[in-house]
Design goal:
Helices cover 41% and strands 14% of the residues. With 245 residues, it is of the alpha/beta class.
Length: 245
């Protein structure tokens, strides 16, 4: 499995408090079957606005500690940004915010964006157009948590048809404690365009949204089948991150 959304880097935003907690989270992720995790601290116009240099330094430290403790978890760089034009423009100036950005493959640009509750989901449609003009692929983080999610099903489906990828939180799928109708909307969005869906833990600690992607496995297989689970948890993220081939 590939976890496309995490706050495992220690002491850098509202995620892991320290290195010890990061290591526990990494062990939990591996125990649940995760092979790769994209580290996505809050940045680019979000309240935390984590600097790239700080992310890279902490990412390097955590990789070193994982190796020292024989924890087989691959960490990839990323950033969770707000879904506004300011963040998009800053992303172009700082390509290191793109998911698994590599200087030898500069054409592949994939950005994780969050639409906070105070933002309207329709503004993501305008951002999607701007991003595509600039050659950037957008992944919308946990749309199921937005208060307008159920009302904007048609808009989300239309944006997926235009290239938007949705990232659902594994714990949200597993808990199934959403308001009436949200679960059915999620199912329909996945069924309507499964190539445009990925999953993430959005883990913030070993207790708050734990880093266990397997939480969603049983539900996805109940809704669909094992083949769909493999597509959402491995095939789609591998393609977006450039891990195939």
């Amino acid at each position: 499995m590939i976890d496309m959304h995490s706050h495992i880097l220690p002491g850098i935003d509202d995620g892991a408090r320290d290195m010890a907690e990061s290591l526990v989270m990494a062990e939990m992720a591996v125990a649940g079957g995760v092979k790769f995790m994209v580290t996505t601290p809050h940045g680019l116009s979000s309240p935390f606005n984590v600097p790239f240099a700080a992310r890279d330094s902490v990412l390097s430290d955590l990789r070193h500690e994982l190796k020292r403790h024989n924890i087989a978890l691959g960490l990839l760089p990323g950033m969770e940004c707000w879904s506004d034009e300011k963040a998009l423009n800053e992303a172009l100036a700082h390509p290191e915010c793109f998911m698994n950005y590599r200087t030898e493959d500069p054409k592949r640009k994939c950005l994780l964006v969050e639409c906070p509750p105070m933002f309207d989901l329709p503004m993501v449609e305008d951002l999607l157009f701007q991003a595509q003009v600039k050659g950037i692929g957008l992944i919308l983080a946990h749309p199921e948590r937005h208060p307008a999610f159920r009302r904007q099903e048609c808009l989300l489906m239309a944006m997926m048809d235009k290239g938007l990828t949705l990232q659902f939180n594994a714990e949200d799928i597993r808990k199934r404690r959403w308001p009436w109708g949200t679960e059915r909307v999620t199912q329909r969005l996945i069924a309507g365009n499964p190539t445009q869906i990925v999953l993430g833990s959005d883990t913030h600690s070993k207790d708050k949204r734990p880093p266990n992607m397997a939480l969603a496995h049983e539900v996805i297989c109940e809704w669909f089948d094992e083949a769909m689970w493999q597509q959402l948890s491995w095939q789609n993220p591998s393609r977006l991150l450039g891990l195939q081939g």
